[in-house]
Each structure stands twice: as structure tokens, then as C-alpha cells.
Amino acid sequence: MWTHILGFTALPHVGGIVGSLYTRTEVSTWYKTLKKPAWCPPNRVFLIAWTTLYTGMGYGSYLIWKEVGGFTSTASVPLGLYGAQLALNWAWTPIFFGAHNLKLALVEIVILSGTVAATMVSWYPINKTATLLMVPYLMWLTLASSLSYCIWRDNPDKEE
């Protein structure tokens, strides 16, 4: 049981760790040059937020997996949507920090937010606790989407 809990909880962090390879140099160089709104959180907040969010969503996915009896046909929609949103989540960092494509990053995060909402809708009848673990994530994505929009709007010349 513990290996499943740890595996599901750790999985989202894999993309975060890989994404940090893009952000490590870009935050202190390219990202620093972007115009950002006054309400943009300090850089250190992002690491704390994503660590917390990845842990919550990972544990939520474990609860769903356990409730539906593993990787069964019943799991295909709720865990399929979860996997899709996780892939979209992991893709945002290389688009924004790697390719510096602000417009595509904005479009991608909006699609990601919709996929997270769909995941939550599919999870709700299965496990309400798992669904509630996704609420902070969706709230953070709302902030991140707004931030992405403002950065795209205010930095048209920064796209490469």
C-alpha cells in the first residue's frame, strides 16, 4: 500500500524536476527581463506552491486509483483525464521557459485548466476528498493563467 501511495504522490514531481532544468537558468536571465504585473508572486513562492500542489494531486490520484480498484475500465476516464492534465502541466514549462512562446503557453494553460476541471468533475462521484485536493491546484492555475495572460500582453516583443 505505501509503495502505491508514494508512487502516485511522487509521479507529478517528475515533471516538476524535469521542468526545473528549463527554469533554472531562465528565471535569472530571460524571465527576469519580462514585464510582470505588480501582483506576480515572488519566484520562491512558485517552488513551494508547485511542491504542495503536485503532492496533493498525486495523492488524490492514488485515492481515485484505489477507489476504482486499480487500472480498470472504470479508471479509464478519471485517470485518463488526470494523465492528460499532468502531461499538459509538464508541457507548459518547456513552452514558456524553453521556447519562450508566451502565446502558446497562454493557450496551453487555458486548455490545462479546462482539463483539470474535467478531471475534478470525473473524480467527484468517486472520491470527494480527491476532488477537494485538486481545488488549490485549479485556484493556482487561475492565478497562473492570469499571470500568463498579462506577461503575453505586456511582452509582445519577448516571444522568440
Automatic annotation (TrEMBL):
Residue stretches spanning the membrane: 6-24, 45-65, 71-92, 104-126, 132-152
Pfam family, one: TspO_MBR
Cell location: Membrane
Coiled coil: none
Keywords: Membrane, Transmembrane, Transmembrane helix
Entry keyword Calcium: no
Record has Membrane as a keyword: yes
Major site of localization recorded for this protein: membrane
Record-linked InterPro entries: TspO/MBR-related_sf (IPR038330), TspO_MBR (IPR004307)
Superkingdom to which the source organism belongs: Eukaryota
PANTHER family: PERIPHERAL-TYPE BENZODIAZEPINE RECEPTOR, TRANSLOCATOR PROTEIN 2
Similarity comment: Belongs to the TspO/BZRP family.
Protein name, as recorded: TSPO protein
Organism: Polyodon spathula (North American paddlefish)
Organism ancestry: Eukaryota, Metazoa, Chordata, Craniata, Vertebrata
Annotated gene: Tspo_1
